[in-house]
Structures are given as structure tokens and as C-alpha cells.
Amino acid sequence: MRMWGWVRQFPKVALVVGVLVGSTLVFAMWWFSTPSKTGEFGAASGEVAKASAAAAQAPAWVKDFKKLILADNNLVNVETGEVIVKGWLKHGMPSGVWFDDDSAKVIARYSKGFVRYNLDGKPERDILMPSPAFLLPSSDDLLFVKEADIWRAEIDWAAFVVREEKAVTAIEEFVDEYFPDNILMVGEKVLLVRNKMQLLRVDLETGETRPSKFPAVSGMEISPGKRFLIGDQNGTLFCYDIETDRATTLELGKRVGFQDYQWLDEDRCLALDRGGLVKLFSREDNKLDAVAELPKQCRQLGIPSPHGRYVFASSEGGRGFLVDTEGRKASPVRGGTGVAWMDAERFMFARDTQNSELRGTWTQKVEETEQRVSPRPYLVPRGGSAVLPLPGSGLVVFYAKDALCRMNSDGTDFAEVAEVARPPSFAIPIGEWQEH
């Protein structure tokens, strides 16, 4: 059994691949990390009255929506295992779904935009573009391709309508089908997109489009917000900003280089050098500081904990270490497959092995011993996480071979809540629609 195959379960964004929270991230089952940002909400008095009336007539499950998941478009209560509604949303399974308490509606995200539903699953209003759309994180506008050019749709999220559509470019060269996946980096006023075997820098205000001066550096890693890129070449560290089209540099030395990077946020990034030393790069200070020396040479950095204090590292021999960026130390951990952070200091993993002493579902808190919560391992799909944290409920959800399981985020109260003929191919939590 490969004990540390999980350290790369969330594929990193790189130059040679498309994007995704993201948040993020198509995998065989169960994780859609973080809901997309939304626009401002403030309903008129008439809309408030309608929402209040709708809430008064809402089904009983609404008050417990934070304990629900949508699994292959079936609405499921994770405390009881009950399938509340089969084939709930009329447009089918979305990539994200949220309950909007202000309007007493459900909002779902699809490849071409968003649909707002009544609680019975019937569409009430939609914001759907003619081709797959990309949600700009800085403005909540939608970008899409129409008539072979990039267009921008300004959204009135309160009314849930498109306020204005306008063309951004005028070159009639863009391919619509894979446009969102081909966006590699994005700033407030500019984006970097791969199109017809070229990397293009597009000014979202003027429409100017030209081949990019993208830096040719090795081991490149793009920040979570897609604005910054870090990498090194010939003993020099680069941090490129798509907004300014400039890179800051830091001389490392001719024989110094890094084999892997892991961003913790938009400012901090861990770098693993070839000697097993983990360093922390501060973008604002343009500085590198040593964090920890690994007991054994490792090649990969894995997913960080919430808030970015802890990061996993793995070696080719299958050994794993947990790096504490604040305590400035690295500790060995035995681990398993399908790792997922349950909170800021606790993670869980599965071991699918014929050794009964090791087999099962396990949790571990930092600097404590591992604990088995079930002799049955949860399923781990290839290339993704098998665990669904439910924001606001204190629960995590996962599937065993023939059961829906859940437990508290502190590792207590494990339960197999329902038998399933087969696990769903895709499942997501019901999030809470947030104001911008």
C-alpha cells in the first residue's frame, strides 16, 4: 500500500494544465472546497415580503440545510441518511449549490453560469451565458466567449439578472468550449489565457490582446487567487504578478533550486529545496526564511491546513512528515491515503490494506497519536479527496464501500448512517449564499 500517495490529492495549478476552488478541482467524488464569491444582496421591500412568505411555507429540511448534501442531484440528510428529494434540481447536478436565506431560494452553479431555484427544485431565474463562463473573483462579473471574442457580463446579483453585456476583445480568435479552463492567471484588470497554442495577455478594460512575456521558470506554482506565480531558474527565484506583468527576483546561488512549492495564501509560499530544507517565501518582503529541515529528503509538498500553519511533505520511499511553519519543525507521520483536514489541527485518512491492525478510517490531531474511528476505510477516488466538510454544521461526510458515513470534525461520534447500493459519482455540501 502506498502510504503517502495522498500528499498530492489536490492537483496544483500549473502552466501546462487548466484550472479547478477551484475552490477546485474536478474529482470522482465529494469535494467542492469553497463556494464562489457572490455579489451584493439587498432586496426591495416587496421582495423581502415574498421571501418571508416563501420561508413560512418552506419544507422542514430548510432549517437544517447545513446538514444536507447534494449527491448525484439527490438531496440527502447526512444525520439520518434519508434521501429527501430525488432528482431535485431541474437542470441536473451543479458544481456548487447554496441556500439564500434572504430570498428563501437555492442558487446553483453550472458551467455556463448560475440558476436560482425555488425550494421545490424548479428554476425561478437564471444567469446563463451562451458558452462556459468564468467568474471574476475581483468583481463577480462573468467572462465568456461569444462570436469568437471575450465578453463580459455585469451581474445584478440582488435581482439575479444580467445588468449589461459588452465585448472585451475584437480579434475573433477565441475558442469558447474550454475558455474557463484555459484561464491560467487573473488580476483585477487583466488575465492570462491559453488559446490556440498561445499564451495571451488580455487587458479587460481596453481589450488589448498580445502574446504574453510569461517567465520561463521551472517548478512553477500559481497562487490560490491566480494572480501570482512562483518558480526558479538558474539560481534565481521569480515571483511574477500578472497584474503588473513584472516579476520580482531573489538570487539563490548557482547550485540552489527548489523541487516543489506550496502557496499558503496570496502572500506566503513554501519552497522545498533539493537538500530537504523547507523555506518560507514572503511576497511582500521578497524574502526567504528557513522553516524546517526534513529528516529525510522529500520531493513533494502537500495540502496545507486551514490558515496554512501545517503542510505535509512526502518522500519517494513513502515516508511522510508534517511541517509546522510556526513551530519551525518537521515531525514524522505514518499517514495513509485520501488525507483531508478536518479542522486547523486535525486530519483524517484511510488505509485500505489486508493488515487488520492498520486497515480502516483514522484521524489524528497534530502532536497526538492516530486514532481509528472505523475498521472500514473510506473510499478514495483517484486524484481527489473523498471527504466533505459541511461548513457550519461541525460535521464531515464520506462514503465507505456501501455506506454513507459521518462524524464530528473533532473525530467523535462516527456513524454509518445509511446503506447505499453504490456511492455517488459526485457530491457537494449545501452552502450558505454569502453577501459580497
Average pLDDT rating: 86
Largest sheet: 8 strands, mixed
So what's the overall shape? Answer: flat
In DSSP terms (H or I, runs of 4 or more residues), the helix count works out at 1
Number of strands: 36
Q: Summarize the amount of helix as a percent range.
A: under 10%
Descriptive overview:
With 436 residues, this protein is mainly beta. Helix content is 3%, strand content 43%. It is built from 1 helix and 36 strands. It has one helix at residues 45-56; strands spanning 68-71, 74-77, 83-85, 96-100, 105-110, 113-117, 123-128, 134-135, 142-146, 149-156, 161-167, 183-186, 190-195, 198-203, 209-211, 218-222, 228-233, 236-241, 246-251, 258-263, 268-273, 277-282, 287-293, 300-304, 310-314, 320-324, 329-333, 337-341, 346-351, 360-365, 371-374, 388-390, 395-400, 403-408, 415-419, 427-432. The strands form 8 sheets. Strands 3-2-1-36-4-5-6-7 form an 8-stranded mixed beta sheet, with no helix packed on it. Strands 8-9-10-11 form a 4-stranded antiparallel beta sheet, with no helix packed on it. Strands 12-13-14-15 form a 4-stranded antiparallel beta sheet, with no helix packed on it. The protein is flat. The relative contact order is 0.15. The model is unreliable at 1-45 (pLDDT under 50).
